[in-house]
Amino acid sequence: MITGAPALRSRPAVLLGSVGPAALAVAVGGGVWEIFGHTLQVSFFPPLSAVIVRLVELFTVDQIAGQLLNSLLNLSIGYTIAVVFGTAIGVLMGVYPKVEAALDIYVYTLLTTPTLIFAPIVFAILGLGRPVVITIIVLYAILYIILNTSAAMKSAPYALIEMARSYGANDRQVFRRVLLPAAIPLMMSGFILATPRAIKGMVNGEMFIAVTGLGAIVIHAGRRFDATTVMAMLLLIVVIAFIAVGLIRALDRRLTTWLPSTARPSG
Questions:
Q1: What architecture is the 48-254 domain classified under in CATH?
Q2: pTM listed for this prediction
Q3: CA angle centred on 201, ends 208 and 265, rounded to 5°
């Protein structure tokens, strides 16, 4: 019977539902990593347990907290700049067709061009230090924000805009009451997509240009063929990415409480 279907779920299925597929996937991946690390016994692929021990040592013995804070500061500044300017440009492109026609070719040209190509130019202009890393972060993240925001501005139902006009709403009221609320879900998707891109830009900028923060640790460990430290930093960077995306998703849920659960992305 259909009404009795929930009672027919097996105990393993219930346990799987309570644990969650994401946690289960992490556990399985970690287990595979540990098994292969011990089985292969090669220097360039240490077991997960050795990587975690090394990561703890980096904080307690090598004291990398300062480098981590430096990287997070670069990431915060660069991501904030990308959000502010990317949103502004995306809104202008989505609302005004002439602005979109003028900037569209540049946005897609930059999107198809490897970002690190601009590294020598940025380095020549800004030199070494925080500004060059922040600029690389902005270049990595801003295009996805621009494109999603532009598409979001054009996603508002035309019937709602006409209805607002019929009640005497001016351009500012239409933007605030119709366009912006309708655009927020897709805009937040752009912020989520831009987050790992910003972290990638942070690491690349620190590794290949400024040699500072977490990127400097990766570079120095790589020169010593210290795979355990490199993998520990990789694990730390992945954790930072998951936390950052989780924060953006939480903000997304806060701003889109009016959306039905079926209209939300999974995860």
A1: Orthogonal Bundle (1.10)
A2: 0.81
A3: 155
